[in-house]
Write a structure and sequence with these properties.
The protein is mainly alpha-helical. 47% of the residues lie in helices and 8% in strands.
Length: 145
Amino acid sequence: MVACRLTVRDGKGGKDRQLWFPEDVGELLAEWFDRRPETDEGWVLPTRNGKRTHPSGVRGMVGRNAEKSGIDWHEDVSPHTLRHTFATNLLRRTGNIRLAQKALGHSDLSTTIIYTRILDDELEAAKQGAATPSHYGDDTTSHHS
């Protein structure tokens, strides 16, 4: 799989970030760039007038799409939820906290360690034979005799 890169300029904390994603997502993004509203600033998600989309507008888009997707807890889905899910899944797959730190653009490892909390909760639940939270895709419950 070939990875594509998008540079985000002057993001949170005034930092530039590199976003990596699979080639098929890059193709979809290229199609979007061909049909998005004209923008002088190069916004990825401009308003219909080509202006910057306010963060609340992005939150609204994410929430509406979560609801359309049938996510039961769509009221709680936000851009940060997507970021947190990405980081948690990356940690689950690789077990590499430094990789997650770099992918998230954190300068301080202690910020990334926050994302390990859910993994600790899952470990504790597994040790106690408890159920995995249902919004993580597992509705089973373990029972002890």
